Amino acid sequence: MKRNLSSALPTTPPKTDVRPVLNPGDVVEILCTDLIAKTGQAVGRADGMVVYVLGPVPGERARVKIDTVKAKYAVGDLVDLLERSPDRVEPFCAVFGTCGGCQVQHLAYPAQLVWKRGIVENALRRLGGIEGARVGAPVGMENPRAYRNKMALVVDHASPEAAPSFGFYAARTHDIVPIERCPIVMPQLDAAIVGLWDAARDPATTHAFDGARHVIARAGHASGESVLSITTDRASTTLPTLGAALAAKLPGTVGVSNSYEPPSENAVMGRRNVTVAGNASMHEAIGDVAFNVSPASFFQVNSEMVGKIFAYLASQPLAEKRFIDLYCGAGTFALFFAKAGARVVGIEENPSAIREANANAAVNGVGERTAFMNGRVESVLRSKTGTDALKAADIVFLDPPRKGSDEGTLDALVRAKVPHVWYLSCNPATLARDLAHLIAGGYVLGSVQPFDMFPQTGHIEALAALHRADVVPFSFPISET
Fold it and tell me: What's the pTM value of the predicted model, to 2 decimals?
């Protein structure tokens, strides 16, 4: 017999007062308990409502003027700090808080590492439903500045009569913040910013930036070399004749290229790229692995931290293991595994990255131990070649973009029962989601080790090691301090 639920429901909803407890213009006091990783906003509560505000760090009590009120939260402006945290430090960048590049320069670096460990732990528990995960303390940097080996500057043509200027986007907008120095990028890139301003004001080189949307530069930590690309809507008519003169104004620059036909309005690089002066790529070396890297390469932005990840992975026996490297980019980790004596199949969607991976395999003398396949990962794994490679693999290593992997790829790993999966992620939220999927498919999470690839920001890299329940796990060390 069907149960009649209509009698259990009120015919007229009770009237409720839905007006927010806070209103724009209110001044409230809050105790800040956390930071939002994406924005750097502090989190507190007033009258039971969540309040977000830029400026404070956890543990500080602040007076805040409410600016915006939504249904479940309010956003305010800092009026003053009533209690200061010992973890507060003076930001070292003149445009901190305006530029969207860094979020937490005002938090002492040791406290940043503690906070980032919590980000990973909370994501695993709250988003992945994974309780009791072994999460190490993040591996950090001795000098958490001047580490970025890549920068992408916006070119501002605000006035047709004036020379172009260069900057980064302001936080959460497309407003351009002029940048003359950046303490986060490597020294040769910082010097290149000064050179770009000089070149834009020199009549001999200013037309190199005609129609420019972005300037992208990549630097080598080991070589001191850099390469630069200027993005335009269509092929530049001026850069081919001015590229060499422009390079001469930028210390360490060994090549200039023109990237054009961007695939979308917000794209930084174009579909096409032509070298107009010097070399298409610069040299980099991490450990005993050599790389030739172009501005468009998918290559981690912190070479020093990549070296620390290499050292961490090298704590395990890698020789003669059979790897599949998913989302392999230009082969950063595939080449490392091959140099350690493993056999590696790399899969990557970007055809230019595959060309770079093959070229770098030859440079490192590991061509016979590597095979790179071009295509979408989930499509390649559905093919007979991809399925056979999965069945033969001892370890799958994957380093997907921020959106994480997809269910089709994860299901392929589960079906093939690959003994070990090592998942490197720059997004704890999608990592937690994908780990939960693999655990539901029969994998056991052994450890999660964060690496601070992005100091002064809310981003954190983490390496998760999983294994099938019926195999002996690798024994990765976990950092506790």
Answer: 0.92
